[in-house]
Write a structure and sequence with these properties.
Elements (H helix, E strand, L loop, with lengths): L7 H9 L10 H4 L7 H11 L5 H9 L8 H10 L3 H8 L8 H9 L5 H37 L1 H17 L16 H6 L10 H12 L14
Length: about 230
């Protein structure tokens, strides 16, 4: 059984919106690929549904109003924002031919430095907790450094260490040291005896200092500031 051929001209009229077609039309110019896949389109749609108006979202981005979004919304907006290549492609399209979600991206990329604005909003929203934690850590480091610099006990201890280093060098005046680099103190800890206990040079120094000047070790038992 033969089938009746399809009315191709009728289809072309439907797509072109014209009643008469004087010349064949290139359908590839009429039917364009969507700007995003269905998954991304759904994610954009879900994000926009959390706001009263789409234009509100665009206004918040333009004004860099991070307080209008939750952290999760900003994270999602950052993930969905077009990159530079996608933005150029979006700008070539006609707004009238776009879906609601595509129109949002079309208007978004018209905002100058939209990607930077979104990044700033996300950073401002998420940075305070991280900055508070960093500030607390820096305060502890600062207090520890002040404690070590002001503590007389550790200064005496380091004098004992310096004397021990010079004694180990057989008292050679040419090799006599008048100070220590903080980094060189690691050598005291890494130098180990060839015994089953594997004691370090630090253990030996502490034992000798404890016998000669116990007060030089009080810094190790004094609590650091909170």
């Amino acid at each position: 059984m033969s089938r009746k051929p399809l009315d191709i001209n009728h289809m072309k009229k439907f797509i072109s919106g014209h009643d008469e077609l004087d010349a064949p039309h290139d359908l590839s110019n009429r039917i364009q690929e969507p700007l995003m896949d269905s998954c991304k389109s759904m994610r954009v749609d879900l994000l926009l549904r959390k706001f009263s108006k789409v234009d509100d979202v665009l206004m918040f981005v333009r004004n860099v109003n991070h307080a209008a979004f939750t952290n999760e919304q900003l994270k999602e907006l950052s993930a969905l924002a077009p990159d530079e290549k996608q933005a150029r492609r979006i700008k070539t399209r006609s707004e009238d031919s776009l879906s609601v979600t595509e129109k949002f991206l079309y208007k978004l990329v018209q905002i100058p430095h939209y990607d930077l604005r979104i990044h700033i909003m996300f950073s401002r929203a998420t940075s305070p907790p991280q900055l508070r934690e960093l500030r607390d850590r820096l305060r502890k480091y600062r207090d520890a450094c002040r404690y070590l610099c002001d503590n007389e006990s550790i200064k005496v201890f380091l004098c004992w260490v310096l004397q021990a280093v010079n004694d180990i060098n057989n008292g050679n005046k040419e090799d006599k040291a008048f100070g220590l680099r903080i980094g060189s103190l690691n050598t005291i800890l890494s130098t180990k005896a060839k015994t089953p206990e594997r004691a370090t040079l630090l253990h030996v120094l502490v034992e000798d200092i404890r016998k000669n000047d116990p007060s030089a070790l009080t810094f190790a038992t004094t609590y650091l500031p909170n």
